[in-house]
Amino acid sequence: MSGYALSITLALVFLALLFVLLSTRRLREKYAAIWIALALGVCVLGAFPGLVLWLTRVTGVEVPANLVFALAMTVLLAVCLQLSGEISTLEEETRTIAEEQALLEARVRALESAATAQASQVPQARVPALGSTPAAHDEQPLPAPHARATDDAPAPTDRQRVPGTRG
Amino acid sequence: MRSAIPSRQLVVLPAWNEEAALGGVLVEIAETLPDVDVLVVSDGSTDRTASVGRQAGVPVLELPINLGVGGAMRAGYKYAERHGYDVMIQLDADGQHDPRDVPKLLATMEEHRADVVIGARFAGTGAYTVRGPRRWAMKLLSGTLSRVAGTRLTDTTSGFKACGSRAIALYARNYPAEYLGDTVEALVTASRAGLVVRQVGVQMRPRAGGTPSQSTAKAALFLGRAVLALVLAMTRPRDAVAERTAERTPR
Q1: A148 vs B contacts (CB less than 8 Å)
Q2: Bigger pLDDT: B244 or B36?
Q3: What are the Cα distances from residue B91, in Å, to B181, B187, B197, B232?
């Protein structure tokens, strides 16, 4: 088998593998995009070897093989950059989720201790619940949850259910 | 055989930085659909979207990060499933979808015993025109999906749909977050899982911010992505829909 036929075959096998990975959701489309472009590129160059020679002439490169290697390295570099970017984004998102979870936990604890204090009828030291107004220990539902003049007081009463929705 | 228990319905509005339009949409829904519950899913909004929802007295899911429409909707489907809703309607928060069309969707669902009903922009109602590669892409999508679903579907990228309890259970588990996944692939997944998909024509209102221009390059890219999304959706392993248990309205 000539070198070109081999590379085309390998590229097609690679495409099939990409397809399976995409299909079973082990790979997301945005990550497959560069690999698909690479595999198609290899198929095209393998089918039309004259293209590489033309490219070599146009770019002023001495040896065609060097151009191919340079292109391959560029693609790999692009993939690395993409992944680095995605990881950075993921880290930021993870930070945000961790923060929100911690804040939520604090609110729940405050609610729990307020509920316990109320239930046991023992006068507790007024522990300022994080992010809530002093009326937080009031368990009665708001009569008109939408009639709030100022918004974004992060009171736990935000979480009161609108009448009509169930558990 | 219909039981006397009325079905519980939920409208879900995925919203990403829609503080300007959301208030008006919520008022409209309250006026036209008084018996339907509402949920706003703020998709990592950095503006006052969530507070607008709260001020209207509506439950708000505040996602701490932006997940995209598919991500926001799966959260909505999970909410609907856990709260035992029988029907869930997806409606845009920017005012493009008319709440008065919701009874149309529900009537079609009842009439055809459908699990998913799409509000279609070009089913004869309204003057919504596209040209060029984008049009070819839409034709390819509607042609393929019509064959898969076994019914005539003309608008496969519409975000206006109503889902019954079987579809809610499916989508709470599996709702794609990729581009075109939340519309095209969601329909394919439902059809291949054995759910009934139907559509009904609705009038699309112009978006407050004007019509987005579509360059040929962008349209061609859309076509490519549509083809990929379609091929992948068709070849993914089928999702088994759980047996219908404890349905409130026996069919």
Answers
A1: 54-55
A2: B36
A3: 17, 16, 17, 26
Q: What is the residue type of B244?
A: R
Of A23, A97, A151, Cβ closest to residue B232: A23
| Residue A49: band (very low, low, confident or very high) from pLDDT cuts 50, 70, 90 | confident
**Minimal CA separation from B57 to chain A, in Å:** 4
pLDDT tens-digit readout, A109-146? 999 999 999 888 766 566 665 555 544 444 444 444 44
Contact between B155 and B142 (Cβ < 8 Å): yes
Instruction: For residues B101 and B40, give the distance between their C-alpha atoms in angstroms, rounded to a whole number.
Output: 19
Give the global pTM: 0.77
Residue A79: CA count within 13 A, CB half-sphere: 14
Interface of A with B (CB under 8 A): 19, 22-25, 28-30, 93, 96-97, 99-100, 144-146, 148, 151-152, 158, 161-162, 164-167
